[in-house]
Specification:
seven-stranded parallel β-sheet; 9 helices; alpha/beta; Rossmann fold
Length: about 250
């Protein structure tokens, strides 16, 4: 089996991805900033019978990323899941706030992708990269312009390097998840009365995504079943990004 790095792999969607890859027998390298959370996550992964390393680092630190990728005994792929986000009217958004979100998502993706690609090319070895973006990378969304800008950059990067690195056997794809009710999402987004009901009414399938459903899509794109797929974006959002008819007066499902 292969070894994959998962950034932001200590919780939420990242941990679900790591668990699902471990179930298929892949070894994992979990990356996050919180050492304590990484230790707990790695314990879960090792219980599934695979090897799991951890690296407590900031994905924005290019030197640290390069050192990690170069020193691993072997590595075949990376899932760029680490991200930062918060809702804020754009006119109230500070430059530092904008920069932080863009650097975590976009710079982090650049750092890990290029470090992996250089190593794979030097070893004349194929590999796979999956970037976790969002549908508002192309639809846009109010109050998250910083995140939308970062994810749109990740989308363009995905397609650009898929074309560039394809001849070297490196596939690069993206998954655009719908809303997943993780612990942080529940406390930050669903805390307002009626928020969950209003949001679910906008989704044709009538519910939020499960982290495990996002993980299934990532595992597919990272594996041999998608060996002829590169530069693709797999949207897993229950149809939320499809919009409504201009004459539809009620939300979906009412």
């Amino acid at each position: 089996m292969t070894t994959h790095i998962v950034t932001g792999g200590s919780a939420g969607i990242g941990l679900a991805i790591a668990r699902r890859m471990a179930q298929d027998g892949h070894d994992l390298v979990l990356v996050a900033r919180n050492e304590e959370k990484l230790v707990m996550a790695a314990t879960q992964i090792r219980a599934l019978g695979v090897n799991c390393r951890t690296a407590a680092l900031d994905v924005r630190d290019n030197d640290a990323v390069n050192q990690l990728v170069d020193e691993l005994p072997e590595v075949d792929g990376v899932v760029n899941n680490a991200a930062g986000n918060f809702a804020k009217p754009t006119v109230e958004l500070s430059l530092n706030g904008f920069r932080a979100v863009v650097e975590i998502s976009l710079y982090g993706t650049f750092n890990f992708s290029t470090a992996l690609a250089r190593r794979l090319m030097a070893e004349q070895k194929s590999g796979a990269i999956c970037n976790i973006i969002t549908t508002y990378a192309w639809t846009g969304a109010p109050r998250v312009a910083h995140s939308a800008a970062a994810k749109a950059g990740m989308l363009a990067f995905t397609k650009s390097v898929a074309r560039e690195w394809g001849p070297d056997g490196i596939r690069v794809n993206a998954v655009a998840p719908g809303f997943v009710a993780t612990e942080s999402a529940v406390s930050n987004i669903l805390s307002a009365p009626g928020a969950a009901e209003r949001m679910s009414q906008m989704i044709p399938l009538g519910r939020f995504a499960q982290a495990e459903e996002i993980a299934e899509s990532v595992v597919f794109l990272q594996g041999d079943r998608s060996a002829y797929t590169t530069g693709a974006v797999l949207t897993v959002d229950g149809g939320r990004s499809l919009g409504m008819s201009m004459h539809q007066a009620e939300p979906v499902g009412t």
